[in-house]
Design a protein that fits this description.
41% helix, alpha/beta, D-Maltodextrin-Binding Protein, domain 2, 10-stranded mixed β-sheet, globular, 329 residues, 2 domains, 11 helices
Length: 329
């Protein structure tokens, strides 16, 4: 189904441009890095060009300047980001290796049976930014609201596209249709968000579920019709799209995010130091604007804020994954 769907979205083009800018900034830091300070490696469990990679490079460039150190972003995708996560879980707790990851972390804790590590053993440093899940359809679809869409497909098998199996979008979609809408739905996984979005733009699949960062330009620009956003309040980027609570499904929320984590056993002082720098960086107007352009809202706060957020995330995704009886050995 993906074979002929090669159009590149505006969002992915913007991400690539930001990656190039940030990669250049990172590569020029070696001349000013303090002698003997050591290299800081930010390990990302996803391919270059995605949101986690982009934010790692954007924040990493400024973090290197603040620390006077070389900061290297290393992409190590595979096994749903578990390869990178396991590497950081087993890394020396010396502050020289950090994990930059997404909601895949709490999802995989329940989804994968034999991953070889405990995700909660990682030490949260900072949740830099968040972006909500959004349900959207082709603008030529007759449905104007989520209720319209569910009603007009009553008795049919509803197909919805996502960036892949085990993603937050996949699990949120499965849970919504099975337990809230009580509709028969089939997940159509693609190799990434752009392909899933293009499948709906091309009329091959009726609905796409994605984090806002995956198709903010298409929804805001009217190329896709946003039916609902999975947050308690409307998102200013797509202010005309109602929340699930507004369309009859109160309490249904689902976020994607990008955060920084340290290996188990890292000193609390080192974690607090990184948190302070990253928190300051995420408040800089230029950084805020770059993240907004990717469809993300910055999330500021100390280490306790990140810890509390992760406690809720582990519980949230555990509930959804177990309810759907999803499991990967």
């Amino acid at each position: 189904m993906t074979g002929g769907i090669l159009q590149r979205t505006g969002a992915s083009a913007l991400i690539s441009a930001l990656c190039l800018f940030s990669a250049t900034a990172l590569s020029t830091q070696s001349a000013s890095a303090q002698a003997g300070a050591g290299q800081l490696t930010l390990l990302v469990g996803f391919a270059a060009g995605g949101s986690a990679d982009s934010i790692a490079r954007i924040v990493g460039a400024r973090l290197g300047e603040k620390l006077g150190r070389n900061v290297v972003v290393e992409n190590r995708p595979g096994a749903g980001a578990n390869i990178a996560t396991k590497t950081v879980v087993q890394a020396q707790p010396d502050g020289n290796t950090l994990l930059v990851t997404t909601a895949a972390l709490p999802i995989n804790e329940t989804l994968y049976k034999n991953k070889g590590f405990s995700a909660p053993s990682l030490m949260p440093i900072s949740i830099v930014a968040t972006t909500p899940e959004v349900f959207a359809i082709n603008v030529d679809d007759k449905a104007k609201t989520l209720s319209d869409f569910v009603t007009q497909n009553k008795g049919k098998e509803i197909h919805f596209a996502t960036a892949g199996i085990g993603t937050g979008s996949h699990i949120a979609g499965e849970y919504f249709f099975k337990f809230l809408a009580k509709a028969n739905a089939k997940h159509i996984p693609f190799r990434g968000g752009p392909d899933a979005t293009n499948a709906v733009l091309g009329g091959h699949v009726p609905m796409v579920i994605s984090s806002l960062s995956g198709f903010a330009a298409q929804v805001a620009g009217g190329k896709l019709r946003g039916l609902a956003v999975a947050t308690e309040a409307r998102n200013p980027v797509i202010k005309d799209v109602p929340t699930f609570g507004e369309v009859g499904y109160p309490g249904f929320t689902s976020l994607s995010w990008v955060g920084f984590f340290a290996p188990p056993g890292t000193s609390k002082d080192k974690v607090a130091e990184y948190n302070k720098h990253i928190d300051d960086i995420s408040k800089e107007p230029a950084i805020v604007e770059k993240l907004k352009a990717l469809g993300f809202d910055t999330m500021n706060g100390g280490v306790p804020v990140a810890e509390a957020f992760m406690t809720k995330e582990y519980a949230h995704w555990k509930k959804l994954v177990e309810a759907l009886e999803l499991r990967i050995d």
